[in-house]
Amino acid sequence: MLKTPLCDLLGIDYPIIQGGMAWVATGELAAAVSAAGGLGIIGAGNAPPDVVRKEIHKVREKTDKPFGVNVYYMSPYIEELIDVVVEERVPVVTTGAGNPGKHLPKLKEAGIKVIPVVASVALAKRLEKMGVDALVAEGMECGGHIGQISTLPLVPQIVDAVDIPVIAAGGFVDGRGLVAALALGAVGVQIGTRFICSTECTAHPNYKKVILKAGDRDTVVTGARGHGVRVLKNKLSRQYEKMVAEGASLEELERLGTGKLRLAVVDGDVDNGSVMAGQSAAMVKEIKPAAEIIKQIMDDATMVLSRMANLI
Ligand code: TUI
Question: Atom 26 in ligand 1: which residue has the minimum CA distance?
Answer without folding.
Answer: 97
